Amino acid sequence: MMQAxxxxxxxxxxxxxxxxxxxxxGIRLAGxxxxxxxxxxxxAVVVMCGDHGVTEEGVSAFPAEVTGLMxxxxxxxxxxxxxxxxxxxxxxxxxxxGSRVEGEVPGVLSRKVRKGTANFAKGPAMTREEAELAIAxxxxxxxxxxxxxxxxxxxxxxxxxxxTPSAALAAVLVNxxxxxxxxxxxxxDEEKVLHKARVIERAIEVNRPDASDPLDVLAKLGGLxxxxxxxxxxxxxxxxxxxxVDGVIAAAAALVAVRIEERVxxxxxxxxLSQEPAHLVLLQEMGLQPLLTLEMRLxxxxxxxxxxxxxxxxxxxxxxxxxxxDLGLDKP
Length: 332
Prior knowledge:
Structural class: alpha/beta
Shape: globular
Oligomer: single chain
Order of helices and strands: HHEHHEEHEHHHHEHEHHH
């Protein structure tokens, strides 16, 4: 089907390859959906939410309580991702897979595995079983979206402190020096960035994750919302749903999924390049090229949602442009 789609693109009224990545997007979507004329009319962003014990080490500019406050903000439709999702005609699915919030937040899908991870600077963030349960939450979420006809899913997350485990995952899985991977996250200064790096170094030393075992790395150094996104990627691959990878946290989850099943790369599209230094390293490790560069580092799925019109543009071009045959020519 991808070959048939390429032939269609080459026969449109334009020089071959002149629409660049839009052509690549259309060809890949054709392969996923099994048609030369794919569509992305049904869209969703999944915002996985979880808290992190490592925040007690002072690695974030915001207190952990902000995770719960932002969950309510999502429900109220007032977060950045809500504003962009409305513009892009995209549903927002908020899932609590591991926050410290007591009880359920109306409007949030409650699938809590535990109330936040442990401080991974002192021991494993969670057990292997908890990581697997959080992955299962992500898979189940995609199954629900698939039943609703969703064709593209954006990866979103909320969890104060989660750029810390993301940098840790990148350092171990990519086997690269840690310090250049550590960014400002919520806006910490250079001194705190160095402190954050030392905390991660301690976590890696204490936990001794097995880089050849992605579940071991995820359980020891990850987060519940990151594990949830791993499940979203795996579930989307199984259902042939396109996945728009957001920033560094989503990319860390995507790489874990790739290490579990390398073929999930087939469904991954890198939406943008964030300011977090680990993001580029993670994308390069997966062989993904970002569609946008907007100097963002917000998360929530904002960058991924912003890339949705590019997928739609690709679908429209292949369906609505004339071919050279329409002009009475046998070939370009």
